[in-house]
Amino acid sequence: MDSGSVISSTSACSITTGGNLWRRKHSTNNIYYASSCASKASKYKKKTQIECNILRSQQSSLNHHYKRIEGGATYQDCDKKYVVKAIPEPTFDSEPCASNPENVVDSAKKILDVFYHFCYPYSMIAIILCAISSSLLAVEKPSDISSSFLIGVLQALVPHLFVAVFANVVNQVFDYEIDKINKPYLPLASGQLSFTTAVFIAASLLIMSFWLSLVIGSWPLIWNVVLTSSVWNVYSINVPLLRWKRHPLLATICTISVWAFILPITFFLHMQTFVLKRPIVFPRSLIFYVVFMIFYSLGMALSKDISDVKGDKAYGIDTLAIRLGQKWVFWICIILFEMAFGVALLAGATSSYLWIKIVTGLGHAILASILLYQAKSIYLSNKVSTISFYMLIWKLLYAAYFLMALIR
């Protein structure tokens, strides 16, 4: 037998693709020279590609490697077997999905949704408008509104916004079980966020608010952060002597103290003493502002419990809506809001400027009318309807902040 020739016997040509082995039998009696081996291997390569493409239609390309297995222990080239091993090349279909832009967008949406429900945007808007309107009460002439005035408003806003989000996170941590019934969509109650992460967020925000107020160096802002964070901790934290939200009177005191006293007075004094460098005063406009917010914040404190009766009753939160019933509390709130608008009307009517009398008088009369009209269409047995009423209260407050800022 010539060493330069290869006799192809009735041996099997094994085709291995991934982890599967396909065998095809073939036989021939022809003798080929060594130079024909490459063409024969090429032929089998083409056949194998066709078969592999049929078996694995999702694979876009196959990298075929040919392994020659020696059939005997002699140096003769006969009885050689050619095993075709097909190894799939990586394709884009098998790439991890983490880099997919759609997944990045979805993750960003989830983070924003969690932040949204921690912030309570309706209260954040109210805080921003409260800071602006309270600051405008310190304006005595048009030249007072300058770049330093705008910077002063931002200085007042940022630390308190951090405190407000901190207070919301703390409230959700200690209201976890209640929120599963009343507000299952919140980050903690829905399982979107862990307690560890929530506590870390709360601590970080509180530290940031204290640090910023100290860096700014305004004593009214420092007192704003200290008092607000203390009041909301007393309101929410479930330890002996605290958790004042369980008692209607104490819960109301917390709400009134923040919205009617701490916010407007500290924001005003920050602008008056720190930004405009004037002595401490309590003008008539600020006094009317505080009285207006006493009635309005009292109504907000009572009305927020109307839609949460079921969960509060299950966990022993003794609200006025549970004691007196939703209907009684609802109409008490309407009376309180109308009294607040009455105070604002009186404040505008006693102004020395005619245009302020007209604008504030007409504006607050319209707000009072809208509230009374909408109150007649509220169904207290429908939670969606009561929540809609609660959001209306905040919207009316936004408009009232603009009107109260005009009073001189």
UniProtKB/TrEMBL annotation:
Task: Give the membrane topology, semicolon-separated if more than one.
Answer: Multi-pass membrane protein
* Compartments where found: Plastid, Chloroplast membrane
Alphabetical keyword list: Chloroplast, Membrane, Plastid, Transferase, Transit peptide, Transmembrane, Transmembrane helix
An example of a Gene Ontology cellular component annotation for this protein is: chloroplast membrane
InterPro entries membership: AtHST-like, UbiA_prenyltransferase, UbiA_sf
Family stated for the protein in its record: Belongs to the UbiA prenyltransferase family.
UniProt lineage: Eukaryota, Viridiplantae, Streptophyta, Embryophyta, Tracheophyta
Name its species: Glycine max (Soybean)
Designated name of the protein = Glycinol 2-dimethylallyltransferase
Note one Pfam family from the annotation. Answer: UbiA
Task: Recall the GO molecular function terms of this protein's record.
Answer: prenyltransferase activity
Domain of life the protein comes from: Eukaryota
The transmembrane residues are 120-139, 151-174, 194-214, 221-237, 249-269, 281-302, 328-347, 354-375, 387-407
